[in-house]
Amino acid sequence: MPSRISAYQLKLQFDDPAPIVPGLGNLQQIADAIAAAHAPAIRLKPLKVSGHMRRTLGSFYPTLSEIRLNARLLHLGSDDEIRLVLLHEVAHAIAHHRSPKAPAHGLLFKDVCREIGAEPSKYVDVAQRKWGERTRYAARCRGCDREVMRRRRFASARCDCGVVIEPRRWQVVALKEGGERAVIGTSAPPVRRRSRWRWPGR
After folding, report:
1. Beta partners for 6?
2. pTM exceeds 0.90
3. How far apart are CA 182 and CA 69, in angstroms?
4. How far apart are CA 201 and CA 198, in angstroms?
5. CB atoms inside a 10 Å sphere around CB 121
6. Which of 19, 21, 32, 185 is most buried (CB neighbours < 10 A)?
């Protein structure tokens, strides 16, 4: 299987408002082709892209026969990293199809991984820390209607116009190479902690 994913566009389904992932549409074709070759009776639902995943790069849902991929992975990961995660989840689907009660990362799963060319391990080695440098949080100012962008989520932020905004949810923005950007999900602001300090004698 080629390590480079070709530029082919296909609209993927999102569980969070987000734009189309460009150049990665053949992921569905790759998943379907592998499943058909190694488990002809399996029927996978269309891939979904999740903007809610934080630590998980991908998941297979047996009851839905559905694979979901992390939006950050698709926008900030390399083609090889995306392919490794996709193969890992397809291996889960095939292993479950062959033996629904088999352990998630047991011997059957590892055998399927070797069969389809995936890494026979519990975790996929992806350097996610580097993604933080290209991730921003954005919200709209109610005063001047300009976008306020920060490296971190805050309970409140001050716009250049002086208005303090308290967004209910921040948009998670991926900064791509070449200056392109994409909204890959939303994230709630951190909860304000109440001070425990009290006046003496109270």
Report:
1. none
2. no
3. 16
4. 8
5. 12
6. 185
Domain 13-116 fold: Zincin-like (3.30.2010)
Closest CA to 46 of 11, 73, 84, 6: 11
Q: What is the pLDDT along the chain (202 residues), one digit of tens a residue?
A: 333 333 222 333 334 433 345 445 688 889 999 999 999 999 899 999 888 887 789 999 999 999 999 988 988 888 889 999 999 999 999 999 999 999 999 999 999 999 999 999 998 888 888 888 889 999 999 999 999 999 999 999 999 999 999 999 999 999 877 778 888 888 888 886 665 656 665 5
CB of 154 closer than 8 Å to CB of 139: no
Distance from C-alpha of 23 to C-alpha of 3, rounded to nearest angstrom = 14
Every domain of the chain with CATH number 3.30.2010.10 lies at 13-116
Burial of residue 16 (number of CB atoms within 10 Å: 0-12, 13-18, 19+)? middle
